[in-house]
Design goal:
This protein has 375 residues and is of the alpha/beta class. The chain contains 16 helices and 13 strands. α12 (286-293) crosses α15. Bound molecules: ligand GMT.
């Protein structure tokens, strides 16, 4: 198949998932065309089946807001026609679903049929999409997609609650390459972070408000009093400086490291003992799944789709949003004893296999195939 993938190229989960999907499809022999404004961060290796088409937005003094969506639709039309795409798979509704709708209509007028599959990822529905400046366009373009998928049952239900969607929304859970994430820790790296064998707690995100990173700091403060430990923050974003200030205020800064954006997550996760995710909402929580695949138990909130990927008391614990004390107690319970930690690590590794790339990618292929027979 010749597949066009449209996504955000940044560190966010939707872009990561779309890129990993494209790479997996290319490995299976499909020709994959990424259409986006920048090389996706996880698109870091050469593959003869992968093509990358950069969307360029012409600037002009008249444009206070350069029309990215128009440029994106034009790029889609160009790639559909010049590379004879069989379908377009767009990740994150805004503005990808409406740009795809326009591209679809343009090529239709030229006599070509191109199915559009839209995958909803979370904030495109729950935060940004609901905003009335976007809502009518989001609802319309989702309804115009030939197929709609959501990354969790929770997101599917939220979408139906928020918009008048007239079509079936298929749940295809996010996935992880469990083989790639199952790494041996690099001892030298572990020693740099935890020179005296302390436990290592980790959080990775885009540090947006929805992640409640201050809760992570407060949980660590409690855990740290009982268990010699270090906290590693991976990623960057608007709430990072607030988290740094809180670490200073609580006098734990020497035991916390902010390592910024990293693309080799599997190597960093390999040294972690516990992953913390305190989000107010996660449609899925890909970062938590990647942690589990690396054998790292997860203490998280029970928000959104997180209960669909974790097992209470086995792969970690799920607590109410903001319940810092329960999350701290659970973290301590996992970390205080080597045998318990080992059991949680093994459970996390085993459970992540249910979301292995080789189980999930065929679900997308089966969906694509339904449309190829219509073309
Ligand atoms: O978490 C973010 O803010 C980034 C966002 C994105 O669109 O990249 O992540 C969303 O999509 C991920 C991949 O499907 C999910 O794992 C995240 O849970 C989801 N984030 C939210 O729902 C807040």
């Amino acid at each position: 198949m010749r597949i066009g993938i449209v996504c955000y190229p940044t560190f966010g989960g939707s872009g990561v998932l779309a890129t990993e999907l494209g790479k997996a499809l290319a490995d299976k022999g499909h020709q994959v065309h990424f259409i986006t404004y920048q090389q996706p961060v996880r698109l870091n290796e050469f593959n003869a089946n992968i093509f990358y088409h950069e969307v360029r937005v012409t600037t002009y003094p008249l444009f206070d807001y350069p029309p990215y969506e128009t440029a994106l639709s034009s790029a889609m039309v160009d790639v559909i026609n010049n590379h004879q795409l069989d379908l377009l798979h767009v990740h994150y509704a805004i503005p990808h679903a409406s740009a795809a709708y326009l591209a679809k209509k343009i090529v239709e007028a030229q006599g070509r049929y191109i199915p559009v599959i839209t995958t909803l990822h979370g904030t495109d529905i729950t935060l940004v999409g609901r905003d009335k400046t976007f809502a009518p366009v989001v609802a319309f373009s989702i309804n115009q997609s030939d197929a709609i998928t959501a990354v969790s049952q929770n997101l599917r239900d939220e979408t139906f609650r928020s918009f008048a969607i007239e079509k079936e929304i298929r749940v295809i859970h996010n996935f992880v390459d469990t083989h790639r994430f199952h790494r041996k820790p690099i001892d030298a790296f572990r020693r740099v972070i935890a020179p005296n064998g302390e436990r290592i707690l980790m959080h990775a995100s885009n540090f947006r408000k929805v992640k409640r990173v201050q809760d992570i700091v407060r949980i660590f403060e409690i855990v740290h009093k009982k268990i010699p430990s270090k906290l590693l923050f991976v990623g960057d974003g608007p709430e990072r400086s607030g988290a740094e200030s809180l670490c200073r205020e609580l006098d734990i800064f020497d035991d916390v490291r902010f390592v910024g954006k990293q693309d080799q997550m599997e190597e960093i996760l390999a040294v972690a003992d516990l992953f913390l995710l305190t989000s107010e909402y996660e449609s899925f929580g890909l970062a938590a799944l990647e942690a589990m695949a690396a054998g790292v138990p997860v203490v998280s909130t029970n928000a959104g789709g997180l209960p669909e990927i974790a097992i209470q008391g086995e792969t970690g614990y799920l607590d109410d949003v903001g319940d810092i004390h329960s999350m701290s107690e659970h973290a301590i319970r996992i970390l205080e004893n080597d045998d318990i930690l080992k059991r949680f690590k093994a459970n996390a590794t085993a459970h992540a296999k249910n979301f292995d790339i080789h189980r999930i990618v065929p679900q997308y292929e089966a969906l694509y195939n339904r449309f190829l027979t219509l073309a």
